[in-house]
Amino acid sequence: MMRVGVLISGRGSNLQSLIDAQIAADLPVEIAIVISNVADVEGLARAEAAGIETCVIDHKFFDGREPFEAALTEALKTAGVELVCLAGFMRLLTGDFVSEWLDRLINIHPSLLPAFKGLDTHARAIEAGARFAGCTVHFVRPEMDDGPIIVQAAVPILELDDPASLAKRVLAQEHKIYPLALRLIADGRVRVEGARVLIDGAEAPSPDGMVNPSG
Ligand code: GRF
Q1: How confident is the model over 13-19, as a mean pLDDT?
Q2: Is residue 145 part of a domain?
Q3: How many domains would you assign to the chain?
Q4: Is the residue at 202 inside a domain?
Q5: What angle in degrees, to the nearest 10, is found between the helix axes of 163-186 and 13-23?
Q6: Separation between Cα atoms, residue 169 and residue 149, nearest integer Å
Q7: Ligand 1 atom 2, closest CA
């Protein structure tokens, strides 16, 4: 069992997808702690309902990023965390934090990276006339929404889509690829080589862009 810490700031639907995969005994990981930088968010209630240890570390109570991140790392290490998952965690992390957790820190982003880094990804993809949107699970690097890509799923953009309708279909894919990425890592099949991720035994991606985990 790989011990995982999840960092959130809000709704926590991706956290829920990881909890659900863990409860289904489907995922060889144990979510050891959920940390939110915002109090009273839905994601904390989801973790509590699943009997997972929670903790609020509010960046506003710290004098700068370094002490805030030191508190994150201390809580994660105390919980015996081996891998950190960012799931809607809305703080940028410094290079020091990224180095501390290098290749043990992953994020989910609602676009097909490296396109559409940052916020409002769906509105920007529609505006740009892209035919596909999607989502990406990647290892974190100091640049925002940068780093070796583990899994992606593509979602067609329909002519009638608005950002909300597109976000809904992308989110459904997020909830599939985050548990999948976690499983690949927990199974020891993921290797970072430079800017790329190599996955042991992966078959060619299926037409929707997902790596076949059974390969
Ligand atoms: C998701 O769209 C995720 O890709 C992005 O922030 C959102 C978080 O949603 N990083 P939730 O809190 O997991 O429901």
Answers
A1: 98
A2: no
A3: 2
A4: yes
A5: 40
A6: 21
A7: 110
